[in-house]
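SAMPLE LOG
Freezer: B-3
Tube label: C17
Construct: single chain, 102 aa
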Amino acid sequence: MISKSTVQRAPATEHACYRINDSRQPGASVFVLSGELDTGHTERLQELLASAAGRTSLDLKEITLVDRAAVRYLASVEMAGTEIVNCPEYVRSWIAAENESW
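STRUCTURE (predicted):
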């Protein structure tokens, strides 16, 4: 199993911190997200998902806040086949609402 951690810190004027823990096994990749997920973080997450082989999952158990663009992004990757697990209920309801609007 390969396990990595990517920490992205917000500019000094902000207090947000975002982390991606990347756990890869043959045929599966799990990305555990923590902190605040916003538009600026989705680009790096997309790069990681694109490099993943096999089944991919996003674990949102430690997410504290998401912006609207991030919700749209999560809805799109879920529709494309990425599994979203341990999703906070409020984020799940926003993803469902986003899916209904398509």
